[in-house]
Amino acid sequence: AAAQGDDDGVDALVAAGDGEALRKVYRSRKKLTGLVVTCGGDNLVRVWDWRRGVCLKVLRGHAAYVWSVLVTDKWLLTGSGDSTIRVVDRATCRCVRVLRGHEDGYVQGLTLLHGSVVASSSGDRTVRIWDVESGEQLAVLRGHSRCVWQTQYYDGRLYSCSKDRTIRVWQPQDQTKNTKWKCTAVLRGIHGKSINTILVVGDRLWSGGDDGCIGVWSLKTHECVRLLHPENGTIMTLSLHTANGSRRVLAGTDQAKVMEFDATDKACKLLSTQRYHHGYVWAVHQRGGVRVSSSLDMTAKVVDAESGETLRTLYGHGAPVLNAAFLL
């Protein structure tokens, strides 16, 4: 089934007014199994009730492509090619502040560290640390020589990957203030091209890049313990979910594939490959037996994880859908 996202095509729930639609949805959340949020090349962010096929809210304000989205208990953060991060109150869907600091570079990734502290990665070759509550920029991490695609945070350390084919490990020198950070290691030598995505899985760090390879690194020794060659194209994104007590890693590719790996298995066995988009898969996440993904084909899809059957196709951006995530 397809869902259209035209502003004047939403139902009476949305017509209730600014933010009221989402407040009603939150109050009746027991009746829902999920909302999703998408962002794209039309500079917009959309909130969907995917089961009913309704776009509940269109968030405006960015002046360029919206590349990244981060959902926390309190906020919805979005990063854009206009070099800003917008902080939206989830309860009202209103922007409460705009974080500025990145210089002439799109904000490609957003990661929650702890509390109200967030890391952003950008085309300006930096990682920046923010206090979202106050809007203060706490630190600027420099060291990468090309754009920084993503970050991951685990056990007090921040990991960043870049087009410069390296992964950097950062550690705060002042645990409470987060204003001083030091690069303690640089992981390199495995990927021959840009490293687009990283993912912490237990005591391992997974990395995927333009060379079509997936590296699995030890977080203790910083050595690559497994190198997978599942794809001739590009690994665009990695995400984690749990199934039957085992960790599974999802990988989206520029060949419109979604691959699932068994991260519990030492060999990181490829379990399945599905194709339900017609272009790059920019993001894919799974909750329970349902996946949401975004693509260059200008759609987001909600699919049954086991069968690959499309449960809902979300139209509305009219441009590449660059990210998607579960909101409820």
Strand order of the largest sheet: 1-28-27-26-25
How many E strands?
29
Computed Rg: 19 Å
How many H/I helical runs? 1
Shape: globular
* Share of helical residues: under 10%
> How many angstroms separate the termini?
20 Å
Structure commentary:
The relative contact order is 0.13. This protein is 2% helix and 53% strand. The chain has 328 residues and is mainly β. It has one helix at residues 20-27; strands at 2-3, 36-40, 45-49, 54-59, 66-71, 75-80, 84-89, 94-100, 107-114, 117-122, 126-131, 136-142, 148-154, 157-162, 167-172, 181-187, 195-201, 204-209, 214-218, 224-228, 235-243, 246-253, 258-262, 270-274, 281-287, 290-295, 300-304, 310-314, 321-326. The chain contains 1 helix and 29 strands. The protein starts with a strand and ends with a strand. Residues 6-18 and 28-32 have low confidence and may be disordered. The protein has a 5-stranded mixed β-sheet, with no helix packed on it. Strands 4-3-2-29 form a 4-stranded antiparallel β-sheet, with no helix packed on it. A hairpin with a 3-residue loop joins β5 (66-71) and β6.
Write the layout of secondary structure elements.
Layout: E1 2-3, H1 20-27, E2 36-40, E3 45-49, E4 54-59, E5 66-71, E6 75-80, E7 84-89, E8 94-100, E9 107-114, E10 117-122, E11 126-131, E12 136-142, E13 148-154, E14 157-162, E15 167-172, E16 181-187, E17 195-201, E18 204-209, E19 214-218, E20 224-228, E21 235-243, E22 246-253, E23 258-262, E24 270-274, E25 281-287, E26 290-295, E27 300-304, E28 310-314, E29 321-326
Parallel strand pairs: 1-28
Antiparallel strand pairs: 2-3, 2-29, 3-4, 5-6, 6-7, 7-8, 9-10, 10-11, 11-12, 13-14, 14-15, 15-16, 17-18, 18-19, 19-20, 21-22, 22-23, 23-24, 25-26, 26-27, 27-28
